[in-house]
């Protein structure tokens, strides 16, 4: 195994510094000069480490103001997922299908937990989004991706798990970018609306098994199409 470079070692130590000082997004970090003194290292290595950490949102460099803890968002994760999937899809491999399977596993594994108790206000949001899908289907002949995305994010809001929301949203972002390069065949909007209404009904009834069945049915159509596409020789 190759030994880490000086810059990579500094990356690790900056992360440890953030943890040791219990810093959060937006909190100031030591200046470049202070980091050089703290780690007994040169300016080039410190700058290289900061740039690498900035690329993954661990730090934010504000010219003229200093260096701060970054947003720690999963945007780089989503970018990586999307790029990997697009490359695989372009080589005739099932990039989009792989993303879909992972997202399906996450959502079917979580939706039963949601039914334990969704607040009335969250149910109202879900019903409103399902109604919006009906309106879009009638006017445009399709359900907007943004509405579908908002529904699935709202579905898990009651779990109050910020990381989960970011992970699911990262998968949506990655899938949207891959979809732009492939034709996965749009599902009948009437079917899409009916499936989302069934998910809401199952959640409102606090029926975990029914909710899992509804979620799995929601994924059946696109999964079947993608599996068929993956089976066709290129």
Automatic annotation (TrEMBL):
One of its GO terms (molecular function) is DNA-binding transcription factor activity. It holds the Pfam family FCD. Residues 4-72 form the HTH gntR-type domain. Keywords: DNA-binding, Transcription, Transcription regulation. SMART domains: FCD, HTH_GNTR. The keyword DNA-binding applies. The keyword Signal does not apply. PANTHER family: TRANSCRIPTIONAL REGULATOR, GNTR FAMILY, UXU OPERON TRANSCRIPTIONAL REGULATOR. This is GntR family transcriptional regulator.
């Amino acid at each position: 195994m190759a030994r880490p470079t000086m810059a990579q070692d500094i990356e690790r130590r900056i992360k440890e510094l953030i943890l040791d000082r219990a810093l959060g997004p937006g909190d100031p970090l030591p200046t470049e000069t202070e980091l050089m003194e703290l780690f007994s290292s040169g300016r080039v290595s410190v700058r290289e480490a900061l740039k690498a950490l900035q690329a993954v949102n661990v730090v934010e460099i504000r010219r003229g103001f200093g260096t701060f803890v970054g947003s720690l968002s999963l945007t780089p994760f989503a970018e990586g997922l999307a790029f990997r999937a697009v490359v695989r899809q372009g080589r005739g491999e099932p990039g989009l299908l792989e993303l879909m399977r992972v997202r399906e596993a996450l959502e079917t594994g979580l939706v039963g937990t949601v039914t334990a108790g969704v607040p009335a206000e969250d149910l109202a949001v879900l019903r409103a989004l399902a109604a919006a899908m009906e309106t879009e289907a009638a006017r445009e002949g399709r359900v907007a991706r943004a509405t579908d995305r908002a529904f699935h994010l709202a579905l898990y809001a009651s779990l109050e798990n910020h990381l989960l929301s970011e992970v699911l949203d990262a998968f949506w972002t990655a899938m949207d970018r891959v979809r732009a390069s492939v034709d996965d065949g749009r599902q009948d909007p009437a079917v899409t609306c009916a499936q989302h209404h069934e998910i809401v009904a199952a959640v409102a009834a606090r029926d975990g098994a029914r909710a899992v069945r509804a979620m799995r049915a929601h994924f059946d159509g696109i999964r079947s199409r993608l599996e068929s596409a993956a089976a066709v020789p290129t």
